[in-house]
Amino acid sequence: MEVKIFNTQDVQDFLRVASGLEQEGGNPRVKQIIHRVLSDLYKAIEDLNITSDEYWAGVAYLNQLGANQEAGLLSPGLGFDHYLDMRMDAEDAALGIENATPRTIEGPLYVAGAPESVGYARMDDGSDPNGHTLILHGTIFDADGKPLPNAKVEIWHANTKGFYSHFDPTGEQQAFNMRRSIITDENGQYRVRTILPAGYGCPPEGPTQQLLNQLGRHGNRPAHIHYFVSADGHRKLTTQINVAGDPYTYDDFAYATREGLVVDAVEHTDPEAIKANDVEGPFAEMVFDLKLTRLVDGVDNQVVDRPRLAV
Ligand code: MBD
Ligand code: FE
Question: Which residues are involved in binding catechol?
Answer without folding.
Answer: 164, 224-226
